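Ligand-bound model needed. DQA.
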Amino acid sequence: PSVLILNGPNLNLLGTRQPEVYGRATLADIERDCRAKADTLGLAVDFRQSNGEGTLIDWIHAARGTHAGIVLNAGAYTHTSIAIMDAISSVELPVIEVHLSNIHRREPFRHQSYISKVAVGMICGFGPFGYQIALEAIANHLGIATP
Ligand code: DQA
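Prediction:
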């Protein structure tokens, strides 16, 4: 089975973007670690990033039939996008929500997540390691035995 790992706006700048909040790992570092983790779980990985809300929605639509589930860090669209929430509801694929930072100890406008309303679950505050946890969570949700 293949998992779509989707990253939203500004996550292409990881490594140099507010390192005191998001750390020094780049998105390429996270992708490499996801591929290694997915290998151990017997999952294929399709890892993408877009700054565009519509592009993310198009990718969610296209995942139906090609991917078993989605790991999603929607960036700031998390807090604003009814459209991404609706896209997730429309495709009926399991989504695990990830955030590098603990959104609940940050500004109040980050406490609300439209993604959480339709996700299987949400992982936040563990930095890049959250993606590893999310891959285990999706494998478990899909009934794949984890080593
Ligand atoms: C983020 C948290 C969001 O509030 C923020 O807009 C991001 C990154 C995270 O991974 O911690 O872009 O999703």
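The first strand starts at residue 2 and ends at 7.
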